[in-house]
Amino acid sequence: MVTETTAPIRGTDAYWRQRRDAFALIESLEQAIRIRNQAPMYVGSADDPIENIGPWDRGCQLQDQVRQDPLAMETLAAQKRLTLLTA
């Protein structure tokens, strides 16, 4: 009987590549949250302010990407850092 798995075998190049990608995705999310937390709410002049939603949109996009990546989710759960998905 042959069982197919979607996860690569531990220790293989594919396994380490997938793990590096998951950690890079998590690091991108952390960086986006840092940028978002320091970004001004409004840009432009005082007479015509423009809402600065770009950093918030980027953070939400990365949170969605992490939710779609099973290894990134597993990593965040193991590190007890799932709060990054709601930050």
Q: Quickly give the structural class.
A: mainly alpha
Bulk shape: elongated
Main sheet: strand order: 1-2
Beta strand %: 5-15%
* Alpha carbon gyration radius: 18 Å
Low-confidence stretches: none
How much helicity do the residues have?
A: 55-70%
Number of domains: 1
Find the count of extended strands (DSSP E, 2+ residues).
Answer: 2
Distance between the termini: 45 Å
Characterise this structure:
The chain is mainly alpha-helical. The protein has one domain. It is 57% helix and 7% strand. The protein has helices at residues 13-38, 54-68, 70-78, and strands at residues 42-44, 49-51. Strand 1 and strand 2 form a beta hairpin. The protein is elongated, with a radius of gyration of 18 Å. It starts with 12 loop residues before the first helix and ends in a 9-residue tail after the last helix.
Summarize the structure.
This protein is mainly α. It contains three helices and two strands; from the N terminus they run αββαα. Strands 1-2 form a two-stranded antiparallel ribbon.
Descriptive keywords:
about 90 residues, mainly alpha, two-stranded antiparallel ribbon, 3 helices, elongated
